[in-house]
Design a protein that fits this description.
globular
Length: 325
């Protein structure tokens, strides 16, 4: 179908929109955030040109989610609010709920935690009313992230645990929710359970081969949990793999602006780079482990030099990320 795309783009733009939408999700599961973003943007434009307002509203939710993946939180908010207005006007209730689910996270990452909490709580209500357990569980997970950002790690752990229990219906989302739970447990000093939960998240990730979001969070929290459990050598080995995989994913983002934001703005990506630097960890070879190795792009110096906003997880006998100045 690829050679026909230019012709179909003129005669049947909605068909090309659906083709690009399908390709976008393939890129997402391969961890290719840049291609996912570009194809999601193109898909929305195709539907707009075709006058397919229902598909366009849904595509703009996907675009908002794609922007979240590269750390473009203000732009994600714009796309999601546009989708929300259109979906409400058209009575697309599932699209409304999905837009609100993603909007809550975008708001949290732009510092509006109270509004984010309200939006995510409404997303949970809407998903529950539609009996969409995947979306409801995903919204509980985002609420857990927002609650952790507000500093209430005990409540965040409770919500993340509930999300993980709901997300047995969606194993890729469950892996990320487990990573969030493990992070909250580390914040509370419950290192043994944190390591067990982080290990379960990593096992889920590796059994699936890829997840739509949260891979860096899973790998990072497992390395940190190992370190907190007094296993520094294993921690560094897993950090080397986490860094290598992050560099591989970053190198696939051909637009330098998006690549830098992916590394510098997404909290778990930024923390992975920073912690690897503090630990003196170099990226492990990925050949034959996670697919084609990609080292044609170096990490931007600004991304390497930036420390994290994620909460400090305590002092270990081995090493730790220094607190943010």
């Amino acid at each position: 179908m690829e050679p026909l795309t230019p012709i179909l783009a003129n005669t049947h733009p909605a068909v090309v929109g659906w083709m690009e939408n399908a390709r976008a999700f393939g890129a997402l599961y391969l961890g290719d955030a840049g291609t996912y973003l570009e194809l999601s943007r193109r898909s929305a434009r195709r539907f707009e040109r075709a006058g397919d307002v229902r598909s366009e509203a849904n595509a703009r939710v996907h675009l908002g989610f794609a922007l979240l993946q590269v750390g473009a939180y203000p732009e994600a908010e714009v796309a999601l609010r546009e989708a929300l207005v259109a979906a409400r006007r058209l009575g697309l209730f599932n699209v409304v709920a999905t837009a609100m689910n993603n909007l809550g996270l975008a708001l949290a990452h732009t510092g509006r935690l109270e509004e984010a909490t309200a939006v995510e709580t409404e997303a949970i209500r809407l998903a529950a009313s539609q009996e969409d357990r995947r979306l409801e569980g995903g919204s509980h997970h985002y609420l857990a992230i927002i609650t952790a950002m507000r500093g209430d790690h005990a409540e965040a752990a409770r919500v993340a645990r509930h999300a993980a229990s709901m997300l047995h219906v969606a194993p890729p989302l469950r892996a990320h929710a487990l990573a969030t739970l493990a992070r909250c447990l580390l914040e509370q000093g419950t290192s043994d359970e944190a390591l067990r939960v982080a290990g379960e998240a990593l096992e889920q990730l590796e059994s699936l081969g890829g997840i739509e979001e949260g891979e860096a969070a899973v790998r990072l929290v497992y390395a940190e949990a190992l370190d907190r459990a007094g296993k520094p050598d294993q921690a560094r080995a897993h950090m080397a793999m986490a860094l290598a995989r992050l560099e591989q994913r970053a190198a696939r983002i051909t637009d330098a602006k998006w690549r830098e934001r992916f590394l510098a703005e997404v909290p778990e990506n930024r923390r992975t780079v920073a912690l690897a630097r503090v630990w003196g960890t170099e990226a492990a070879p990925l050949d034959g482990v996670l697919g084609e190795d990609t080292h044609d792009e170096a990490l931007p110096d600004s991304a390497r030099a930036t420390l994290v906003d994620l909460p400090h997880v305590g002092v270990t006998t081995s090493s730790t990320v220094p607190p943010k100045p």
